[in-house]
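Thread amino acids onto this structure.
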């Protein structure tokens, strides 16, 4: 009996510590300071957002973030966050509007965007959120066919309009992690879109996080539940919104949603070769940042060729990620996001066979700029955010200044990384 109590007490302590470390910002604030500038932008290296000479990239205009949410609706939300923390009956559509640098002129916003400094004045602020007046049907999107069903939906029409006004018909989809609020997810999505030059469309996929310390297990279940919703969205955005390319950024517990949705599409479309699959679904670059995912589950996805749905997949991992260290202790298996130096020979063999997958060790960069937890480096670390931008541009790891690690699986940042990317950028070719 005493042993039984001790085991449950141990599990409770592990769960509590896990929740505290893995937690995001649980305070519901509608603004925060602009994320650190990618070091490449500060050095003048080309970036998906371009050179930011276009005034619209650093304007005071509102940024629309298109929302697909699996959360329930709250009756009294005050216009900012209409969503609760539980599962909704079916996905809801909305558009959130975010400002960057309110009260600053375009020149100052430009300076705040391109200058590498620790303390910035530009605030990222959620102004309002508007629910779409025409929600989706209960089972809104059918996989595999080519029929456009939602061309008259105002949300779809708004995406069409923004793409028509953009230089690029690209849609970037952000998938958040554990214990996060709608507001903070929207702010981060807007920041990513800002550093992409505000070209194309940004969509935030709001799966129902409970946003509480002890909600980790429930959140992981909600993430699994949300995989079908995400798969349905990926299966239909290209045809419904007439896009050229789709970029996906999945963080932490959101990463397995991305991988498993792509895996399911690959299995459903087992008869299509990769080239036709990518042409149909328009999925280009996929970023998995600090993925809170069972390593063996990821290997299963490789066996089922999930990566063939996209033109490239980049996995960013760090053995210094304390959040995933606790997650690994809780689950008792290796996590993809801290697999650096922890791969068996057969795992290395399987990963290396998938040439479209790039494994990047972010630990050196994270040591220079990281936080205590070391789980949010994909947007807090200027080296990592620079590499993500170059990956989105289609540059190979070697072209991005990375070097092979000792195991020949992970690419890593050299000590002279800033100098190396400045030298290599002259060798890049642009269409």
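Threaded sequence (431 positions):
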């Amino acid at each position: 009996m005493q042993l039984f109590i001790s085991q449950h007490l141990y599990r409770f302590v592990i769960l509590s510590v896990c929740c505290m470390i893995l937690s995001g910002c649980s305070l519901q604030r509608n603004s925060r300071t602009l994320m650190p500038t990618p070091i490449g932008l500060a050095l003048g290296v080309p970036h998906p957002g371009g050179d930011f000479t276009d005034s619209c990239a650093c304007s005071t205009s509102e940024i629309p973030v298109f929302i697909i949410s699996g959360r329930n609706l709250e009756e009294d939300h005050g216009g900012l966050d209409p969503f609760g923390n539980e599962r909704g009956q079916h996905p809801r559509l909305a558009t959130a509007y975010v400002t960057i640098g309110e009260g600053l002129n375009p020149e100052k916003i430009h300076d705040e965007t391109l200058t590498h400094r620790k303390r910035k004045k530009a605030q990222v602020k959620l102004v309002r959120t508007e629910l779409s007046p025409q929600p989706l049907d209960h089972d809104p999107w059918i996989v595999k066919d080519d029929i456009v069903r939602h061309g008259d939906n105002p949300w779809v029409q708004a995406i069409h309009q923004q793409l028509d006004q953009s230089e690029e018909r690209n849609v970037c989809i952000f998938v958040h992690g554990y214990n996060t609020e709608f507001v903070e997810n929207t702010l981060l999505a807007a920041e990513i879109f800002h550093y992409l030059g505000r070209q194309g469309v940004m969509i935030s996929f709001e799966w129902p996080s409970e946003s509480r310390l002890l909600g980790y297990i429930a959140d992981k279940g909600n993430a699994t539940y949300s995989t079908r919703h995400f798969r349905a969205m990926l299966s239909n955005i290209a045809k419904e919104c007439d896009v050229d390319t789709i970029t996906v950024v999945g963080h932490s517990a959101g990463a397995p949603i991305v991988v498993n949705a792509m895996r399911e599409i690959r299995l459903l479309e087992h008869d299509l070769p990769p080239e036709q699959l990518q042409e149909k679904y328009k999925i280009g670059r996929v970023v998995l940042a600090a993925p809170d995912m069972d390593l063996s589950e990821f290997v299963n996805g490789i066996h089922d060729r999930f990566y063939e749905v996209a033109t490239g997949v980049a996995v960013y991992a760090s053995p210094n990620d304390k959040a995933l260290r606790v997650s690994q202790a809780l689950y008792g298996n290796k996590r993809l996001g801290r697999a650096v130096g922890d791969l068996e020979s057969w795992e290395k063999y399987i990963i290396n066979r998938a040439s479209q997958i790039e494994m990047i060790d972010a630990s050196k960069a994270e040591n220079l700029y990281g936080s205590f937890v070391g789980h949010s480096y994909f947007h807090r670390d200027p080296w990592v955010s620079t590499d993500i931008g170059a990956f989105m541009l289609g540059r190979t790891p070697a072209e991005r200044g990375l070097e092979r690690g000792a195991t020949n699986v992970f690419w890593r940042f050299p000590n002279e990384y800033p100098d190396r990317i400045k030298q290599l950028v002259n060798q890049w070719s642009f269409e």
